[in-house]
Design a protein that fits this description.
Layout (H helix, E strand, L loop, with lengths): L14 E5 L10 E4 L5 H5 L5 E9 L2 E15 L15 E8 L8 E8 L6 E8 L16 E4 L4 E3 L2 E9 L6 H7 L37 E10 L11 E10 L3
Antiparallel strand pairs: 1-12, 2-3, 3-4, 4-11, 5-6, 5-12, 6-7, 7-8, 9-10, 10-11
């Protein structure tokens, strides 16, 4: 899979903020990441929000790109058969606060149907949510629909949903040395000690090791004009975060 063309970071948080100053579209990219941090998402990886990104669209500074990554880690062998959640109507949401009160003013809602390789995606938004909070009901409006693994364009909005190389970088061996209580009870990383770093090269250069290299996630990518997100009353500043939940009828 191709790498994302944006920074890799290891921030244990779940918010991303984009800033647009007045009528001048100048988005500052901020990113956040967390992987399988609770037993619930370890058992249900489709609900695991791994990454949230907001950054200026490459080659088009008047547009913003929003990214929600889920379901990592996926091996290349498991990727073709993996899908976005459609059992019990899983709901993926990207939320935007453009008034500065840490409550969503706009939502993007995505739902999926169909089997692996033939999944369809439906995007609703950006529109005002019916209610504030994680378990939002489906909003109205004219949805954008299409197949996953393709770029869908409608009314100035581009949508892609499908597997991509996980952009998160983590050196697990070093991480478990810093936080030994998170160390696994079995496997090659179970006996990490303060001795030589087992997974380093024999050259003596001791580089960091990306343990997610070659691992995929399920990514939702939306590109749209920043004007559809920004609020002139707050000097164009807006916050972005994401949730996963069941659809409420």
């Amino acid at each position: 899979m191709k790498k994302w063309n944006h920074p890799r970071v290891s921030l244990l948080a779940l918010t991303a903020v984009a800033v647009a100053a007045g009528s001048v579209v100048a988005v500052r990219a901020v990113v956040a990441s967390d992987h399988q941090d609770t037993p619930l998402v370890e058992m249900s990886p489709r609900f695991d929000v791994n990454d949230v990104y907001a950054f200026p669209a490459p080659g088009n500074p008047a547009h913003t790109v929003l990214v929600l990554g889920t379901s990592s880690p996926l091996t290349p062998a498991n990727t073709p058969s993996f899908t976005f959640g459609n059992k019990d109507q899983e709901l993926y949401q990207i939320k935007v606060d453009n008034t500065g009160d840490a409550r969503e003013d706009l939502v993007f809602q995505l739902t999926f149907t169909g089997p692996p390789g033939k999944q369809k995606v439906t995007l609703r938004g950006p529109v005002k949510p019916n209610s504030v909070g994680t378990l939002n009901t489906l909003v109205g409006g004219t949805p954008i629909k299409g197949y996953t693994n393709t770029v869908i364009e409608s009314n100035g909005i581009k949508l892609f949903a499908g597997p991509r190389d996980d952009p998160f970088f983590i050196d697990l061996e070093a991480f478990f040395r810093i936080l030994p209580d998170r160390r696994p009870v079995g496997g090659p990383l179970a006996n990490v000690t303060q001795g030589p770093l087992t997974f380093r090269s024999a050259t003596g250069s001791d580089p960091a090791v990306d343990f997610l290299r070659g691992i995929n996630d399920m990514a939702i990518v939306i590109e749209l004009p920043t004007s559809l997100l920004a609020n002139p009353a707050t000097n164009g500043r807006f916050g972005v975060w994401a949730t996963t939940s069941r659809v409420r009828n």
